[in-house]
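REQUEST FORM: STRUCTURE PREDICTION
Request ID: SP-0412
Submitted by: Lab K.M.
Chain count: 1
Length (residues): 555
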Amino acid sequence: MSLFKDQLFGQIGDPKAMTAKPLLFDYAPPKECGKTWSKVVLEVDFSVPAGRQYDRTAGIWLGGTNLYFGTTQEPDATSGARWHVERDLTDYAPLFRDPKPGQVILNNWVSEKYTSVIQASAHLVFYPATQDAPASTAADAVFGLSDDPRGEQAIVQDGKARLHRTLALPRNTERVYMDVFAQSQGNDEPWYTCIDDAYVSKTQTFALESPYDGAPLQECNGGNLRQVLVTIDGQPAGLAPVFPWTYTGGVNPHLWRPMPDIQTLNFIPYRVDLTPFAALLDDGKPHDVSVHVLGANRFFNLAASLLVYEDQGSKVLAGKLLSNSLKKQPGTGLPHVESTLHANGEHRIEGTVNTAGKDSYLIVGVLDTSHGKVRTEVAHKDSFSNRQTFSRPDATHYRQVIDQATDVDETIATRTGNAAEVRHRRTVSYPLHLDVTKDVAQDGSFQGDIDMSQGLHVIRQSRGGDVAFESHLDESIQSHAAADFNSMGSSINHSRDQHAMHTFAFKDTFGSCSATKLESRNEEPAVATPGEGCPNGTGALDWRSRLDAQASGVP
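STATUS: Completed
RESULT:
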């Protein structure tokens, strides 16, 4: 089912404008596909010709709900790029059963300097339900948080601004989840390199670039703890980590040629379990659902959707939010910062700036349903650390090393009546390492040598009663490149010594295994090793498996 085909995105105008005209489309469900499916997948193909262009943010929306969110590949003067992305939208099946308006927002501008036009096509693939692959447990209703009937992302400049919508949910809502995207842009784009305001001037000469047009060469300010907060009627309802996406124009574009960083071209949302609040949301009244980015400092794009699962045996449910310890934590999002910065014997600044934060909360709710009293507990722990080390080996060399770790351990425990408790545990880890060495010339220009590595590790475990499931997702990239920079870090020339390795491995209880190792050298593909680590060196996927580490009906 085609949504749009071979559409060109490239209005003539200011390359840094944010007001490109969206591509509008109208969706009607294909009659031949029915209305129940084992799986629904969005497939999108992009291309950009050789030339010059920024990496651009792209979003596909339907009926106010986001279907795809990501960024585009930057071309270079001699080679363009083509790429294919997919997103499993099975949980969003209700969206596709009725006609809806949609739009594509891809803010790509062309000029005499920025010449490359981006082309894109997208279609939905509906896999029919069969005896071997029955209909999946999709949500019963999906609500995008966008007020636009077609949908669009919201821009938040700071932690007080919010994406929000007032909604009255079905009165038989039994479970509710939020899928949320938080994409950093502007000053916040390299937020993991930002530093507490008190130390910006002291570390200015270590910076790789200016944080925004007109600013001097310096680290971005505002600190480096970023965290998503979900609220219901102003009450804190859940936290989510922010993944440190690096776009293909980020840090040094040559790091990402030809292989982009993790999820750069296809963001995966983080799912927050809001089920303990179901009783509050079942009262038939409108409720404010909001999303903030704590620590945001110019700016973040936000998109979020609610997935609602109803009790088909009841029209109205009643219950209670029993406890919410997150509501009692006024320090959420406030980091602890320590510094050892000092002038050494040669009056050169050296030392560390360490930022740390952690949260722990328990939210409990109960519902009287058609199949008994259901008690849901969300137990959440997270920790964040960002350690920046600054050193001066000699008069011309500046070295900055960033080691960042984001970790989440969350367990959702559900008990129905006197049945056995079912526990869904998810552990998430986002490690990041960035090592930048600058050799600065008298005119302020410098040679930059950069190592960057990043990881995405997700373990899911479900236990209790007849439930026994486990999946592991491990993805990592290590990339290196050197280049010559002008004094503002805005012009990069003579790239050299590029090499990178990207590994992906997934396995689960269904017997699925997918693994790939890719290597590049001098901005060209060097080695591709599919299946390494899988039985007989061959990958295999069960139709129920989710390579994005999401799981239908659970967070």
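NOTES: The longest strand covers residues 349-369.
Reviewed by: T.R.
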